[in-house]
Amino acid sequence: MVNRLNTIMALAVVFLMVLATNRIDQHHFETAQKTVNEVYKDRVMVQGYIYSIAEALHQKELNHVQEQNVAAQKWNTSINERITSFEATKLTRSEAELLERFKEEFKELEKMEAKAVAHQNPKMHRDQIVQLKGYLKELSEIQITESRNLTKSAQKSLNVSALMANFEIFFLICIGVALQVLVFYKTKKNAKAS
Fold first, then answer.
1. Which helix (H) or strand (E) holds 45?
2. On the CB side of 76, how many CA atoms lie within 13 Å of its CA?
3. Which residues contact 79 (CB under 8 A, 6 or more apart)?
4. Is 163 helix (H, G, I), strand (E, B) or coil?
5. C-alpha–C-alpha distance, residues 15 and 12, integer Å
6. Transmembrane segments in this chain: where (predicted)?
7. Complete domains list, the chain, with CATH
8. What's the whole-number mean pLDDT along residues 120-128?
């Protein structure tokens, strides 16, 4: 009777340990999944917004050279839409500060274009666009850095999960061997006693 109680207690402890490690594994997998989603939503998509804004600024430069004011408003609307989408993502402090400076400078560019100062002073217009492109380059570099950090975090969670899974397998093998020894030892002991 005591042996059965000990066996039941040992199996219960094994069950609880496997359950606990499984919960830890699940937590690490959830962390990795969240990180992968964050990389896509807050980094890859943002890189696309930055590219779209840079393309629109380039088109504005071309239009300015060709003196096509009609298209400027179209590109301004496109840029403002991308800025709004960008702001809706999870931003780091430096990213938020850079984006805010970009917005302020872009508003200045819009005012310049609305007052037709851009055609009166093309160098000022060009310099404004060059400055905006500099902000975009810095924002793009932040995306790369943050993507790398998030990827490292996800990899760390996956590594811990893999380690825990290996530990679980090792532990289960040890328990299996111990149970086999107990069963065969009992059988052998019972056979000698008979």
1. helix 45-65
2. 16
3. 53, 56, 57, 106
4. helix
5. 5
6. 163-185
7. 2-193 (1.20.120)
8. 82
Q: How far apart are CA 183 and CA 7, in angstroms?
A: 10
Burial 100-109 (b: 16+ CB within 10 A, else e): eebbebbeeb
The C-alpha atoms of residue 144 and residue 127 are separated, in whole angstroms, by: 26
Give pLDDT, residue 106. Answer: 93
Amino acid identity, residue 111? K
Q: Residue 62: what pLDDT? A: 75
34-43: average pLDDT: 79
Per the structure block, which two tokens stand in for 152? Answer: 């490292």
Q: State the pLDDT at residue 188.
A: 62
129: Cβ contacts below 8 Å, ≥ 6 apart: 57, 60, 61, 109
Q: What is the DSSP letter of 66?
A: T
| Cα end-to-end distance, the chain, whole Å | 19
Per DSSP, 1 falls in state: -
Distance CA(182)–CA(8), nearest Å, equals: 13
- pLDDT tier at 162, thresholds 50, 70, 90: confident
The tokens of 93 are what? Answer: 């402090």
pLDDT over 90 at 43, yes or no: no
By residue count, the chain amounts to: 194
